[in-house]
Amino acid sequence: MSMVFPRVSRRRALQSAAAGVVALGLLLWWLLPLGEKPPSGTIVFSTGTPPGVYQEYGERLRTELRKDMPGLKVKLLNSAGSQENVQRVANGTADFTIAAADAVETYTLRHPAAAARLRGVARLYDDYVQLIVPRDSTVDSVADLRHKRVAIGLPDSGVRLIANRVLRAAGIDPRKDVTPVSDGIDTGPERLRRGKIDAFFWSGGLPTKGLMGLAEKSAFKFVPIDGDLVTRLHAGGEVDRYYRATSIPESAYPVQRGSAVPTIAVSNVLITRKDMDPRLTEWLTRTVIKSRDGIGAHVHSAQLVDLRTAIYTDPLPLQEGARRYYQSVKP
């Protein structure tokens, strides 16, 4: 049985379309803070070393910010990592960045006056310490690194900070008991493959593309960082409380062959300064939270950004703009 639909006049169709536009406008007004015009201007975002997660996350976030704030120009600066990132925001070289909590705490203890200007925006995801050696290496524990050529990260990186602490917890002096090499995720994988170093530390989100590339070219294995070492690490002082025992999930990298690897993790915090425009920070915080799935489709770690935990930016208090956003979405 066929059905007959009434004809819709052109005038009525135009009225319906206009009503739809009005409804869409109201919906957009509701989604945007108080219907305000998006912030504009220029901000500098310090990222990390290609092909690390900080750098990729920063690029993806810039794309999302462009959608929400077309008049905002976001300049990205590559960096050595967490330690340099914190310094840049504190001294005004950058406006926003990502840094591991242990690096933020370390800077706070060393430079309390400058650190007083720092504020948190969101807790993002965890970095996992990844200690890599060739598949046929005789190194099966951190203690086995003695007298080896070990890449401990760039001088101002978070990797350098945590690698030195892990080595000391294992009874190894990073300056005397190993040959320290300043390689990061950009050069470490290839130098390991060519036999120029015996091991390298990396601290980053899972999985890191730089290691995925190494897995495709040659075999490597992860050295476990077991619970006893983590216990000794925690005895080191205030900064070490940010490390927690965990495991690299068995599905993170194909080379694991279905086995989880004991290690430690530390949370990453998106940070800015106290004097940053609160309205801009509020908008940026909103974009960070709502773009989780979009960025997470490319940067797996970003899938772990969660509104329920984002407010815990320890050791930094929340920036006023971020606080406004979290209060606006509080149930």
Describe the structure.
This protein has 331 residues and is an alpha/beta fold. 39% of the residues lie in helices and 20% in strands. Strands 1, 2, 3, 4, 5, 6, 7, 8, 9 and 10 form a ten-stranded mixed sheet that branches. Helix 6 crosses helix 9 (227-234). It is globular and about 60 Å long.
Quickly count the helices.
Answer: 13
Structural class based on helices, strands and sheet pairing:
alpha/beta
Mean pLDDT: 89
Shape: globular
Order of helices and strands: HEHEHEHHEEHEHEHEHEEHHHH
Q: What can be said about the biggest beta sheet?
A: 10 strands, mixed
Helix coverage percent of residues? Answer: 25-40%
* Radius of gyration (Å): 23 Å
Annotation, overall tally of beta strands: 10
Low-confidence stretches: 1-6, 16-31
Q: Please state roughly what percent of the residues sit in beta strands, choosing from under 5%, 5-15%, 15-25%, 25-35%, 35-45% or over 45%.
A: 15-25%
Q: For the record, give the distance between the C-alpha atoms at the N and C termini, rounded to a whole number.
A: 50 Å
Name the features.
single chain; alpha/beta; disordered N terminus; about 325 residues; ten-stranded mixed β-sheet; globular
